[in-house]
Amino acid sequence: MTAKPALARKMPGTHSERELWRILHSGQARCADSGLDPEEWFPLSADVSRARAQAASAIALCTICPVRAECLEFALRQWFGAGGDGVWGGLVAAERRAIRRQWLGGAAVTEFFAEGRRSAS
Ligand code: SF4
Questions:
Q1: Would residue 31 count as lying in a domain?
Q2: What angle do CA 47, 67, 117 make, to 5 degrees?
Q3: Residue 11 belongs to a domain
Q4: What is the number of domains present in the chain?
Q5: Count of other CB atoms within 10 angstroms of residue 41
Q6: How far is ligand 1, taken at its centre, from the CA of residue 105, in Å?
Q7: What is the value of pTM for the model shown?
Q8: CA of 38 to the centre of ligand 1 (A)
Q9: Which domain holds residue 54?
Q10: What is the per-residue pLDDT across 10-52, written as a single tens digit (0 to 9) for each?
């Protein structure tokens, strides 16, 4: 009998929402016990540059988070719920809004980790 691969090793887009939720609550998420003020995760500005500056500490954690891709995938699926606000996967809401159409068209979330890919919509 072969071992079942770890959930986090699959492409994020192939996970069910239940699997994504389990991954995000598996103890790997850097935000779980970061000690950051919760408001650091919710920049007030709608402008991308200002929002990123306001959430810089949170975004810095996301960039080293091992479940970043799963986090962004989950947020995009939850766009009309929790995923529509705050920082998810190192992206602020305006950035996720900009990539959502491409993501709905089949682009993998990892394609948007490069800053230049997030400005196109
Ligand atoms: S990518 Fe950021 S918001 Fe998502 S689980 Fe990791 S630290 Fe938390």
A1: yes
A2: 40
A3: no
A4: 1
A5: 20
A6: 24
A7: 0.89
A8: 13
A9: 16-118
A10: 888 899 999 999 999 999 999 998 999 999 999 999 999 999 9
